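Ticket #4471: structure export looks truncated?
Reporter: QA, pipeline team
Priority: medium

Steps to reproduce: submit the single chain below to the structure queue and open the exported record.
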Amino acid sequence: MATGYAELLRARHAMRLLAGTLTGRLPNATGPLAIVLFTRAEGGSYTLAGVLSAVYGLATALGQPLLGRLVDLHGQPRVMLPAAVLSALGMLLLTLAGTDPVWAAAVGVLVAGVCTPPLEGGLRALWPSVLRGPEKVHRAYALDAVAQEVMFAVGPLLVTVFVAMWNEAAALLLINALGVLGALSVVVSPPSRAWRSAPREPHWLGALRSPGLLALLGTFFFVGLALGAVAVASVSYADDHGEALISSYLLSALGFGALAGGLVYGARRWPGAPERRLVWLVLALAAGYMPLALVPGVVAMTVLAGVAGVFLAPALACAFVVVDRHAPSGTVTEAFSWLVTTFGVGAAAGTGVVGPVIEAGGASAGFAVVGGGGLAAFLVLLLTARALSAAPPAGSRSAAAGTASGPSPDRAAGSAASPDGSPGAALAAGAAAAPGHASAPVTEAENDRNGAPQPGFRTGPQA
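Actual output as written to the record:
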């Protein structure tokens, strides 16, 4: 297992892109905590801290797909680096204005959130041009999901270290400076500079015109809801047992389970279509969440939390493959950004919904919301199975390739062109045709499963 991941990271530019993306996303991973700590240090109330943090979260959710569409139209360097700088300037405004006047603080967090660069979606768009073969791309998606768990664990720790060494304002500025450096590392890399989106059909809905993508977004809204709820329910459980650290035990166990599950999932090849595999993974995820409502003793609860996390990273990794298969041509970054947004909105909704439920029924009821979110995600997949199994919409990358070179060979389950359910074998040919140093613009579709050559977006239609 370790050998497979080591081989992936030895690919030229892979480590740089992964490390740069994770560093560039630190402001987003730590933003809510850093804003709350800064607001309280400035004498603001918890209410104001919560409002500013919520504004930042909603602004980020709004900005990700919009910036993702701009990346698809104009390339990564022209959008991501200016966005990262503007986001950091928004946080600089917050630190200069403090909490008085409040409107200036709100403007600062609003700008910081809206301008958060879509590095997450951008990295997933780059993997097929960096790695040779669908199996490595599939493994990179799993590693990506695992790396998120590490980032969200390390990020808050960095904030607290910076606060201890300097102060809350310095922590906010340092984290955002690191974010700019991370984005810079990505956008000056040869793969990022060479990457071009496939031609896109002008359409105001962009990526959202894909029924399969809409089905996936509905599913992961409820997965996000479950994760938002579990954080609050864990705090309630800890309060019931008189020890605040218990919540960190549960959340750490959840993260460790996701880390282990993601590493194991990405280390092997999986047969069949990823859409069907995703149904089983989400069902397993829901089944893992449901026993949490039993709220047993601390040791047993910690074990249950670890088990509950095992299928989270695999479900995310499989979802990345499904997004890639269903994103309309020329919208891959926007499509991945919509997944990030929907997941985040779901988490915010879960945080808001579970509070009154816990007030009425205690921690057990709160964890029941977690299980309910997982079950709702599974039901969405069942109800939208036809949309996920249908052929891609007209203008999608798969449909466009099928027009040029015949039906996509991996639409059938277990096709020899796609033994692991990830983008088909022709992707390997497309990736191999590109120079390893990515010094020339990539002219193939960003993850075209048939390897059908298409002109770069500069000479094709734009929307």
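Status: closed, not a bug. The export was complete when the record was re-opened. Leaving a note from the reviewer for reference: The first helix runs from residue 2 to 10.
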